[in-house]
Design a protein that fits this description.
Elements (H helix, E strand, L loop, with lengths): L1 E4 L7 E4 L3 H27 L12 E15 L2 E12 L25 H12 L7 H9 L8 H7 L1
Antiparallel strand pairs: 1-2, 3-4
């Protein structure tokens, strides 16, 4: 976040009021959104030749709908609004349909793979199950949710 300060009536200079962690989270958020947009664009472009009987495209981007969820990354929690695709294209003679699934942000992903790998290591290094939520709040920020003692025990 930038704030304009007016020390001199004529000169306005931006002053940075953001921590390094906030910048990392914001940068990660922007990069993920851009990558998701490119992934959807590529998918729609690859299937743009598919048309129904009226000549309408069977695979289109649904610009109004987004799936919103919070994903925990090494930089902390990031809320992402993933784009949706309306895909009515048949895959084969059985009339089943293609379905767009992001490789970057698969369905139900709530933690980055690297963070998932780190949690059992913390346990193996001697961090007790009950201490995980406090340790992860210190590492990921106060918004680190979903890291209860029960969920940590399941990861072991």
């Amino acid at each position: 976040m930038f704030k304009l300060t007016t020390n001199d009536a004529e000169a306005q200079t931006p002053e940075v009021e953001t921590s390094l962690d906030e910048l990392a989270r914001e940068g990660a958020h922007r990069m993920i959104l851009e990558a998701l947009e490119l992934e959807v664009e590529q998918y729609v472009r690859e299937l743009r030749h598919l048309r129904d009987e009226q000549g309408h495209a069977m695979v289109v981007r649904n610009g109004k709908c987004h799936h919103e969820r919070t994903v925990h990354l090494g930089a902390g929690p990031v809320t992402i609004r993933a784009p949706k695709v309306n895909d009515c294209s048949p895959v084969d003679d059985r009339r089943s349909q293609h379905k767009f699934t992001s490789k970057i942000l698969p369905p139900y992903m709530r933690r980055s793979p690297r963070l998932e790998e780190a949690l059992p290591v913390l346990y193996l290094r001697g961090l007790s199950t009950g201490d995980f939520s406090e340790a992860l709040k210190a590492l990921l920020g106060p918004d680190a949710a979903g890291f209860s003692a029960t969920s940590m025990a399941r990861l072991r």
